[in-house]
């Protein structure tokens, strides 16, 4: 077992190095260590610099071996069993984890903020204007799980977000349309929904689908499900399903998202988001 783990870690290290090399576009100038932000357009370029051209099948014969060849409910059930084997973090530990998973590839002192695309100093984590905080992409009120260890601390759907933009999103469902969010990097919102910037629409969708597979109601938390509506309130649902499926297709996993998945697997929760590795499984299940 030790030998297998050692080989996996060596392979992961090589994969990580390749990802970082792909993400670091030569045309981008690294932000000085003293800077706290870059423009949203620069960060957006960094996070989408290298779009994955092929499906990640590196773990098909090992991690996903019990899911390969299945479809529909059978696939969802197998993936649930696989990804439920994870190390759980405390909510306070999430701060440091996000500083690693969402590190700006052009400035190791910064993180990329999900909705705005801004690169901001890791040290500016908190609750004040100008800070970044921990955004629950699956809004924690949708199923009332709060910040409890489990869905409330699962970093596959927790991302750094500007405090004010995070507040604008609130617990809204995801859908197309609305008015521009100030300093939101192109994100839109209306009274009952939120549309993230184009560069992370697929990321958001795949985080939602992960949560719907990982939390099925058997571990003391609500059975989280994706549905076809918005304004779900405190019910354990998030929509809209057709929109999220379209976002998954339109914005495939890029190097930043794949690297994030690998860091979570190697260093923190030791489970993967299967829809980053196999985005086509979304259509197979839903």
From TrEMBL:
Q: Could you confirm whether the keyword Mitochondrion appears in this record?
A: no
Signal peptide residues are 1-35
GO molecular function per UniProt: DNA nuclease activity; hydrolase activity
Pfam families assigned to the protein according to its UniProt record, in alphabetical order:
Endonuclease_1
Q: Where is this region: Disordered?
A: 34-54, 166-194
SUPFAM superfamilies the UniProt entry points to: His-Me finger endonucleases
What is one Gene Ontology biological process annotated in the Swiss-Prot or TrEMBL record? DNA catabolic process
Could you list this entry's UniProt keywords, alphabetically sorted.
Hydrolase, Nuclease, Signal
PANTHER family (UniProt xref)? ENDONUCLEASE-1
Q: What is this protein called?
A: Secreted ribonuclease
Q: Which organism is it from?
A: Streptomyces coelicolor (strain ATCC BAA-471 / A3(2) / M145)
């Amino acid at each position: 077992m030790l030998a297998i783990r050692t080989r996996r870690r060596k392979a992961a290290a090589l994969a990580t190095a390749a990802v970082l090399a792909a993400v670091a576009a030569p045309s981008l100038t690294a932000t000085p260590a003293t800077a706290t932000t870059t423009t949203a357009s620069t960060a957006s370029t960094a996070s989408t610099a290298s779009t994955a051209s092929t499906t990640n099948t590196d773990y098909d014969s090992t991690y996903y071996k019990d899911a390969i060849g299945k479809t529909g409910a059978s696939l969802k059930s197998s993936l649930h069993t696989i990804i439920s084997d994870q190390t759980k973090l405390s909510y306070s530990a999430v701060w440091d984890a996000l500083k690693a998973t969402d590190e700006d590839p052009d400035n190791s002192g910064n993180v990329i903020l999900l909705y705005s695309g801004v690169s901001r100093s890791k040290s500016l984590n908190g609750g004040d204007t100008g800070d970044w905080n921990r955004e629950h992409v699956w809004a924690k009120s949708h199923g009332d799980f709060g910040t409890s260890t489990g869905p409330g601390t699962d970093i596959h759907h927790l991302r750094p977000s500007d405090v004010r933009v995070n507040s604008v999103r609130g617990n809204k469902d995801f859908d197309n349309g609305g008015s521009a969010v100030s300093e939101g990097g192109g994100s839109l919102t209306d009274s009952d929904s939120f549309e993230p910037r184009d560069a992370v629409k697929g990321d958001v969708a795949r985080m939602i689908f992960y949560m719907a597979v990982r939390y099925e109601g058997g571990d003391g938390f609500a059975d989280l499900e994706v549905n076809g509506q918005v304004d779900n309130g405190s019910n354990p649902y998030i929509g809209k399903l057709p929109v999220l499926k379209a976002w998954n297709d339109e914005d495939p996993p890029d190097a930043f998202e794949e690297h994030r998945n690998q860091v979570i697997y190697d260093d923190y929760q030791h489970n993967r988001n299967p829809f980053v590795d196999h985005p086509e499984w979304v259509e197979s299940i839903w």
